[in-house]
Amino acid sequence: MKFKCSRDALGHALDVVTHVIDSNVTLPVLNNILIRCEGKRVYFSATNLEMAVNYWMEAEVVNEGGVTVPAKLFSGYVNLLKDDQIECSVQDGLTLAMNSAGSKTKIKCIAAEEYPTISSIEEIVSFELESEGLPESVSQVSFAASSTNTRPVLAGVYFDVEGKTLTLVATDSFRLSEKKIQLSQPVVQAMSAIVPTRAIQEFARLVSKEGVEKVRVVLGKNQVQFEIGNLELYSRLIEGNFPNYQQILPRSLKTTTSLYTNDQSLAVKRVNLFAKENNNKVLFDFQKDKLRISTPATQVGEEEGELPIALDGDPGTIALNSEFVLDILSHLGSEQVELGINDSKSPAAFKPVGKDDFVHIIMPLKLQ
Known about the structure:
- Helices cover 19% and strands 44% of the residues.
- The protein has 368 residues and is α+β, with helices and mostly antiparallel strands.
- Helix 1 (7-18) packs antiparallel against helix 2 (71-79), helix 3 runs antiparallel to helix 4 and helix 5 runs antiparallel to helix 6.
């Protein structure tokens, strides 16, 4: 195997594939990247057995073949090179020689035959998505997923595609995000699946880096495949049934108001300095012309802030987790937020002002 390419192209390829590699693996070969030269292309593959990525780039291929290279060492070395052109070749069976104008190195490798096979997906449903705004949409939802595997179905993002609408949902049972994305073409059949949070976040990262106009999503029985330009990202799906979340989404709200997102965020951050001593409990008191945000007195003190508002509906009070509120305000992606409640025992709803494609709810805390 032998090929020549630019340092920037090789560095980009390694950045794409190395993110799926885990630091703690049982098989040494999983610390490596599989590199194959075929025709005029060099293919790069990496997997952790739960998620995998394939990427190809055009290069000057001198000899075809394949080998697996230690990912961390290879990527770190390439990032330290200044020379624009690099020549890579396999010598003495399992040694990768890298030559450039200012440096020469050799890296011990493992045979390509020892690398796990990345199986192709058996397609059930596929659809295209516009890349513009897609990473932000994923971010709005994925942060609300559970960070533990206590309930595996909550450790991912629920995909529900029907007609021309893709719905993304995530919850940790204390908060929930729902985002609706319109498709240009209807799917041939409705389908739902749960994609691991890490996989969907890696998908969003790659979309933002590759600069393509559209991406393709393929859902199979127990796998999902994301096609983004020159790369393919695979992931296993999470087995199980996602909770029937729609029954807790408020259909109407008795009390609503709109605020500038940054103003509310600063007010909650000030109160949060004291709320940390009270399990992050913050009171939101909706009055006719102001929203009072406060926390009960703690050992370190207390804080009460007021924001001018135009209230639509009845006055009311609710207690919420301040960290959860700050999370949604940082992921909302809108200058203004619509905040609504029904009563102190029902979830509070957060929406971008003027948009109906996203809603985030937070379950209330006891007032007393």
